């Protein structure tokens, strides 16, 4: 079971998302699930073109939905199955010691 869920809403910012995912890939443990809540017009996972661990999960949403609605939809549809939840963004990087 995962100990932490990280939600990372993003839309149409592949360079910033790629930078963040490469950073997280370096230190996130396998018991931490990172969900990219993508509201991009294009398939951003294909656009960033990097190999990611299994605990980095992309969820695509209608581009008309804002970040808050994507978060609400994720919680309603998938639920949070961990003790802790962290909300990130594609602008900043979370420091590993914070987690």
Describe the structure.
This protein has 99 residues and is of the alpha/beta class. Helices cover 30% and strands 23% of the residues. It contains three helices and four strands. It has helices at residues 14-27, 44-48, 67-77, and strands at 4-10, 32-38, 56-60, 84-87. Strands 3-2-1-4 form a four-stranded parallel sheet, with helices on one face. The radius of gyration is 13 Å and the shape is globular. The mean pLDDT is 90.
In short:
This protein is of the alpha/beta class and 99 residues long.
Any key phrases for this structure?
globular; 99 residues
Topology:
Layout: E1 4-10, H1 14-27, E2 32-38, H2 44-48, E3 56-60, H3 67-77, E4 84-87
Parallel strand pairs: 1-2, 1-4, 2-3
